[in-house]
Amino acid sequence: MRIINIHEAKTHLSRLVDAAAKGEPFTIAKAGKPMVKVVALDVPALPEVQRLGFMAGEILIPEDFDRMGNAEIERDFADDK
To answer: Is the pTM of this model over 0.90?
Structure first.
């Protein structure tokens, strides 16, 4: 989120408000300290991002997936005495 000092905010208020109305919020700071956050009143909701299960039914996972490679791992980490 952009941080704008109060002097710049006064100078460019119209442009900043237009940007905020389009979904680009900003913070106004005074002497480097954030004071207020400007956001649109009716920001359209962002589409929900679905991450888990997005390839359901497209990938097959073997039943022994959690045991795959056990022999090689045991061989590589076996104590060689």
So the answer is: no
